[in-house]
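Design a sequence for this backbone.
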């Protein structure tokens, strides 16, 4: 009888310890798997891919600002959803001078992530973008810059892939490459009635956006 009572007392004493350990483990798991939000700012280096030999565009500098939401992840794989403002474009030579075409996009990347040792994350996925403005630096004296938005495909889509490094808590350092699958310009236009104010025919230019980004950010 004494042995039974002693065993019951020991079990009763160990149970709170076991419950505390389980709760601590559950809380640690929840903390590890909690969702994350963050902000990033960075530098864009952009141009066009897939152009013909008749037109060889140059690179243009720009910038990006982004916010993101990362879903809870218990292991290697995760998911990232972002909203990105990207100023990009390309340059070209006109009459011996360098001209700039600037395009402002809102992109929505949806990325699968792989995180290694909590300090390096590889990201890859698809994104869709919306062209919100386009400007040409070339202006004639006394006239405004031409409205060129009607020549563009307003919706862009393509691949995004890159990496992030987390050297200290909250800090983000990273890089990404974006390549579009769709043409920047519309392919069916009557250039005889509405000539385009640059030295190429957008209807014949099968150029696609390509952007390299480096950025810094913070995860809350």
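Sequence:
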């Amino acid at each position: 009888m004494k042995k039974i009572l002693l065993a019951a007392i020991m079990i009763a004493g160990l149970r709170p310890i076991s419950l505390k350990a389980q709760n601590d483990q559950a809380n640690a798991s929840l903390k590890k798997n909690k969702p994350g939000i963050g902000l990033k700012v960075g530098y864009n280096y952009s141009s066009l891919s897939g152009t013909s030999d008749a037109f060889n565009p140059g690179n243009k500098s720009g910038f990006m600002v982004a916010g993101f939401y990362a879903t809870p992840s218990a292991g290697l794989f995760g998911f990232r959803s972002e909203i990105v403002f990207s100023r990009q474009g390309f340059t070209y030579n006109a009459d011996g001078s360098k001209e700039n075409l600037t395009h402002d996009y809102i992109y929505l990347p949806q990325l699968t992530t792989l995180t290694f040792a909590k300090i390096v994350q590889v990201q890859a996925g698809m994104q869709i973008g919306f062209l919100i403005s386009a400007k040409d630096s070339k202006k004639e004296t006394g006239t405004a810059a031409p409205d060129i938005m009607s020549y563009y495909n307003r919706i862009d889509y393509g691949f995004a892939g890159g990496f992030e490094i987390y050297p200290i808590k909250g800090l983000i350092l990273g890089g990404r490459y974006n390549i579009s699958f769709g043409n920047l310009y519309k392919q069916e236009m009557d250039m005889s009635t509405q000539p385009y104010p640059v030295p190429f025919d957008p209807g014949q230019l099968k150029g696609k956006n390509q952007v390299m980004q480096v950025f810094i950010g913070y995860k809350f």
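The longest strand covers residues 97-116.
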